[in-house]
Amino acid sequence: MTDGDTHELVVLDLAGTTPKIDARVKLAGPATHIAISPAYDYVAVSSGEGKNFTLVDLATMATTVVPLITGEPGIMLAGSPLAVYHRNDEPAIVEVFRVADIVAGRLEPAQQVAIGPAGHGEVAVHGLNRVMVATDEGVDLLDVIGGGVRYDRQLPWNTVDRQGGRGYYARLGSDGVRAFSYLRIVADPDKDESWETWELWDNDSYIANAQTGEVRRTELGKGLVYRMGLGANRALYSRIHPDGDEAIVLDTDVTSPTFGSVLSRIPLPSLTRGPVAGVEPWSSESRRVTIMPDDSLGFVTAGGDSKVVVIDISSGAIRTTLTTPTPLAGGGYLLAVGPGMDATDTIGRWISVPADGDISGLRSGRLLRGRCGSHVGVLDRARRGVVPAGKGSRPRRQNPFVPRNGPSATDPKAPIMSAQGAPGTGRRTGCTPGTRRGRRSRSARGGWSGHW
Questions:
Q1: Which of helix, strand or coil describes residue 383?
Q2: Looking at residue 103, what DSSP letter applies?
Q3: Where are the strands (E) in 17-102, listed by range?
Q4: CA distance linking residue 312 with residue 217, whole number of Å
């Protein structure tokens, strides 16, 4: 986890019934993204504000700060030899920093490969030696080869039956092959009023197979869908709408005849201070979701109402409602863990704890790996002083980058080229620290802030 107040990596000992802080490691700025290596021996934490990432050796807690020329610092740890893969959006590239080079003090990227515009959302598919990056134009597939990367192809956002939108958040499924996301489809995205009328937004689930390239979409409904919880064979979404909120259970079992379909919709009590129709939603209270790794229970917060709804996933019904001692401002944060569950998805966005080390609200948990009982932890981001990730509002511009499959960045003769092709129709995004709950703003050329 990361500490939003002190800018530290917090390493938890989860051997007992209650997690204890094992170590605190200073980071070079507020955390934006975090990744752990498949062997659980290194962690990389990026900082958009600091324009760097910190590499942490978990055996010694030694750190190395690597500077970045960055717009938005997505981060992955993958490959053999192990390397940090930095997904940038300004310029639109993936940079490769080999861990052995970093440890030896060589902090320049070994390679840079171009990707599509406005990259945001990535997945490391370790079993296939691939990484996936969400961009305006589609999902870019890149092969991880010998401590480097090679551009393969781009998967479309559109399918035969569903069109429009793009994803900004992606998770790797339990099969280690498919990436899961969701798409927001906004009519007339160049009009200001389209971004106020969130109740008219359409939302789809999105599944991309990193091996075959197959993609599929399923309609979730209109309104505000934000993030998702992903278990072994089920995904859980929440949807906020003036006509009523609901939790949505999606079948993610690849052996099931209903794979990719909605299995149940569970009505939820409306938020007391939720979004108002016709007014941008990012300043209102919201929801967060998670699901147990074994798909037994789902959890949906009610931001501002001090409530967590507990859902029986198999029956598609509410089992109970928990009351928390804090309001769960903005939806709070949720973390669900299960016994003996290793990490499939080794990339995370902020889960923070307070500087005073008070983690009493988190009965049991892990940072991507743990041996513990099944519990759900809830953190209130307002009480903890956590600033959530929001979208940036930087203007889009023509970016210099190296060509796909281009030469090493250390080669002085490596050509620098201008971005080719028309810009995509998706909306801009970043993770600008300090943008509390994604308050919307307009950039010079149509960029928006707000949660994705």
A1: helix
A2: H
A3: 20-26, 33-36, 42-47, 52-57, 63-67, 74-78, 83-87, 93-98
A4: 25
Among residues 64, 66, 52, 56, which one has the least CA distance to residue 23?
Answer: 56
Taking alpha carbons only, the member of 438, 443, 444, 442 closest to residue 168 is: 438
Structure tokens at 19: 């997690």
Question: How far, CA to CA in Å, does 158 sit from each of 206, 224, 285, 385, 425?
Answer: 10, 20, 31, 39, 12
**Residue 377, both tokens:** 């932890």
Side-chain half-sphere exposure of 139, counting CA atoms within 13 A? 36
**pLDDT for the residue numbered 340:** 65
Cβ neighbour number for residue 410 with a 10 Å cutoff: 12
Q: What is the pLDDT of residues 272-298, one digit of tens each?
A: 999 999 999 999 999 999 999 899 999
Number of Cβ atoms within 10 Å of the Cβ of 398: 10
Residue 137 to residues 119, 181, 319, 425, 430: CA-CA distances in angstroms?
A: 9, 15, 41, 8, 16
Per-residue confidence (pLDDT) for residue 23, from 0 to 100: 92
Confidence at residue 184, expressed as pLDDT on a 0 to 100 scale: 95
The per-residue pLDDT for 427 is: 30
Maximum distance among all Cα pairs of the chain, rounded to whole angstroms: 63
Cα distance between residue 203 and residue 228, in whole Å: 12
The predicted model gives 347-354 an average pLDDT of: 60
Give me 85's structure tokens.
Answer: 């893969």
Number of neighbouring beta carbons within 10 Å of residue 327: 19
Mean pLDDT is lowest, of 50-59, 246-255, 379-388, 436-445, for: 436-445
What's residue 197's pLDDT? 97
Is the C-alpha dihedral spanning 311, 275, 239, 89 positive or negative? negative
Residue 307 exposure: Cα atoms within 13 Å on the Cβ side = 17
CA atoms within 13 A on the CB side of 272: 12
